[in-house]
Amino acid sequence: MKKFMNVMILTLIAVFMVSCGDAFRNPSRDDGGDSITLRFLHIWPEHQESLNKIANDFTILNPDIIIETTIVPFNEVDTVLNSAVYGGTVPDVFFQWTHQIDSWARDGVPLDLTPYLDAEWINEFTNGEDLLEMGRYEGDIYNIPFRSTGFLVLYNKTFFEQNGYNVPESIQEFDQLMQQMTVQGIVPLSVYGSVGGTFSQIVDVYNKYRDIQTGAVTDPNYITARLMPDAVYSTQNGFTQIIDDSSVRILQKVKGYRDRGYVPQAVNGMGREDAMNRFIDQRSPMILANNNELGILRQGLPDNVEIGAFAIPGPAGVEERYFFGGLDGFSVSSATRYPAEAVAFVKYLTSLSVQQAFSDSEKSIMVNKGVVYTDPQQSMIAEEMADVGKYIVKPDYQAGQYGDLSASAMANYLGGTYSGSANDLMLYMINNADKALKDAGLTFIEPVYDRQTWDDSWLD
């Protein structure tokens, strides 16, 4: 606990040591100036030392370019960027999740990077151009990935070995494992709830496995998140009845994890640090956590405790694997006065030497295909994350307030404080999506995929 708290205190100090006052003001200089300043925004106080070194090394190679860094917490970056957009002070190079760049590109905030992407640069990425697809909007690339990010189950490998537990290879085995642990009086899985928490991510994973089984992921419009739901629609009352109840049963199944004691009862009162503390204090032998939190968790645990990792598996008999994750990336401001220099810095961030050094020091899974993972845990995580971005959904509309309402309602349901049933909740969320689509002048799209017969016994 003390190790973890020390790490978090240093992290918070690092965040608030960075002044935000004029940090985003676009650089200015006389035409005859000797150097320019690029404003660089990222969200990682825990990686500040490494990123400062990267910035300094870039300046050594390019003495006429100074990198001025600003750090904001990950959960505030969108708010900060929105303020910068309105103020005309967007940083020259700024962090954004690659798979979420669409809304920013729709508003013209990032620069189109397509003209700068030559074959040599594209070839440096794992899976080449396929990896860059997440940063594409209407045919052009607006974000360059830097590292993979996603959530998998990190587990106390030492505890597993001492108690004869095996890593589950299916959802059914995952359920059985947690049931066995509760018999010992253990809360197996540490997660946190409320909006944006890790508990609700399990719903997404299980919905995706259902979509893989039914064949929905093969529909050409699946990526839009606008496939018509299996529900009865009334022009007066909206969607009023669920036809296919698999989504309802998934909600019930995940809520059942709390009811059975598989996750903490107070899940909605917990935050990220609380979930980490449960794992570090060894009150829960598993935690659903971001792969980039591995370093913090290792620092908190005793030296004799080894950490293992596995992605939440699919139903028995399903060979396809889904990984809940995406990519951390960087964009260049469309308003920058120095596009060539800003792109050069982004390209440097993805170079093999920088990616290898960052991976070695920060234990991250990088996007350059030449990176070698000598750390056994890193190598194992990289293998589990090999399919990151597969079956990604990139809605072509903004859910806005309706999305927030649905997320809040689902968090309340999973946490045991929602007044209605799972069926009520599902209808509520479908109708919220319908309202968001209508506000955007869009509608649900009729599916065209060939629906497969599937084994839904794992939902019980």
Mind explaining what this structure looks like?
This protein has 460 residues and is of the alpha/beta class. 40% of the residues lie in helices and 14% in strands. It has 17 helices and 12 strands. Strands 1, 2, 3, 6, 7, 10, 11 and 12 form an 8-stranded mixed β-sheet that branches. Strands 4-5 form a two-stranded antiparallel sheet. A two-stranded antiparallel sheet has the order 8-9. A hairpin with a 2-residue loop joins strand 4 (136-137) and strand 5 (140-141). Helix 10 (246-259) packs across helix 17 (422-439) and helix 16 (400-414) runs antiparallel to helix 17. The longest helix is centred in the C-terminal third of the chain and has 18 residues, at 422-439. The chain starts with a helix and ends in a 21-residue tail after the last helix. The model is unreliable at 1-31 (pLDDT under 50).
- Mean pLDDT across residues: 90
**Helix-strand category:** alpha/beta
The termini sit apart by 37 Å
User: Can you count the beta strands?
Assistant: 12
Give the number of helices: 17
- Largest beta-sheet details: 8 strands, mixed
What is the string of SSEs from the N terminus onward? HEHEHEHHHEEEHHEHEEHHEHEEHHHHH
Helix share bin:
25-40%
Low-confidence stretches: 1-31
Computed over alpha carbons, the radius of gyration is: 23 Å
**Outline, from the CA principal axes?**
globular
Strand content: 5-15%
